[in-house]
Design goal:
Number of domains: 2
Bound molecules: 6-O-phosphono-beta-D-glucopyranose, magnesium ion
Order of helices and strands: EHHHHHEHEHEHEEH
Radius of gyration: 18 Å
Number of strands: 6
CATH superfamily of the largest domain: HAD superfamily/HAD-like
CATH class of the largest domain: Alpha Beta
Length: 229
Amino acid sequence: MQFEKPKMNIKAVIFDLDGVLVNTDEFHYQAWKELADELGIPFDRNINERLRGVSRMESLEVILEQSAKNFTQQEKMLLTDKKNERYRALLNDLSADDVLPGVISFINNLNRINIKMAIGSSSKNAPLILEKTSLDSLFDVVIDGNQISRSKPHPEVFLKAAQQLGEKPEACLVVEDADAGVEAALRAGMRVLAVGAAASNPKVHFAASNLIEFIGQIPKNSFKSKHII
Ligand code: BG6
Ligand code: MG
């Protein structure tokens, strides 16, 4: 792995939520799949990759590309409401057990060296997910789909998070599983750690299959304090 500079001086970490901290990306897929099947629209995991990080309505637009029928704005609203109802039903049993491997250990290590932490998510369900998984008390700032007007790949969510943390973009590291999120972070002028689905994105500064793997490969002096582990 290549690093731009030996000392990166990262002072804050902004985490995406779905697919980075919690495996809710799978629930998004299941809820969209059910809706697409009902409408007779072809939808698979390949197309689903394009929905990572983008808003609910933009996700529906991607799915409807495969349909010959034209839907009115009102019909689209009903469809997104329906998907969200299903998605929220799938979130019912969500608990701290659904937090992804390495997340708590990574956060604890960042806390120990006083790195500020924020959530930067496109989801309007972020507050519910953070509460159900007991992650809500761990972050200094939460910016989610309720506070932004432009979804990733627009950088708004990350710029707002950095501003509320009181840090410059260049002092922030974003953790993302979506190509749209990687793009948003780069446009914001931030460093990016890609996990999971985005790990093969050639534009990122760090890549790992998950946070456990990343903790094992953190270069010395990347963060404000010399020792993260
Ligand atoms: C992102 C997900 O975090 O949130 C997307 O990666 C999702 O798949 C988006 O469409 C909006 O989520 P919600 O919960 O507001 O429908
Ligand atoms: Mg995500």
